[in-house]
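Re: the request from the purification team.
They wanted to know what the chain is likely to look like in 3D before they choose a buffer screen. I agreed to run a prediction and write the result into the notebook, where they can find it.
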Amino acid sequence: MKKEYYVRSLILVIALASMDVSAQVGNHFLDVTNVRPLVGATGNFFTNLSGTNSCFEVPRGSGNHSLYRFNLWIGGQDASGVLHLSGETYRQNTVDFTFGPAIPVQNLSFYNQVWKVSKSEIDHHIQHYQDPGYALAQAIEDWPGTGITNGGSAVDLAPFADVNLNGIYDPLNGDYPCIKGDQALYIIMNDNPPDSIGLPNSLGVEVHHMLYGYEVGTHSYLDEAIFLHTRIVNRSSKTYSDLRIGTWMDFDIGQ
């Protein structure tokens, strides 16, 4: 397994039924297209934190939901042929993924959130960050571009434009998030917790998800679609072969 893998998924939508919920701590809705999905900080896609309601609304505002849950699965063999696997279904007992980077970082609780940022916020920041009295948007200020390890060194996390080339995310000096689409949700998680699917070996990976969409108005296929870009970083000392990456879904179509 190379140190990083990138996965891009296109999720096309067929609408049907369930209930709506409001965003909670550690959750955000993507609400720029005709699809309105909820994302949680630990990778719980399309359901609320308690797991009681579907949160993949199509059309947006209709109260109809067609997906209940979506999770990442990843597995591979180490040099000794031992299988390592991380994957979740309903998170009912133990879990495979938790929030934050896979390496020890300062202020870990900061990563128990979903970062939501729009292209318009970024464009405004680029144009005005040098203006007297400029007020930095919270979404730009909190972007996790770099983290500080417990040893005091900086590590690259979420993608950003390093305007002043100092290697550290510094929005007051012009740095800004690099996102796809017109609005994006970003989470960072890792597979350090004990496995919930019965196998003892996690991989020691760090997973970055960016869910995004385009604001194009009605009568466009882009208004009926969302996209997921996934970056997987091997933070362990092991090398994996025969790697498999997949997704697990529970649909609510037909209810």
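For the purification team: Residues 100 and 111 are 5 Å apart (CA to CA).
Please add any questions underneath this entry.
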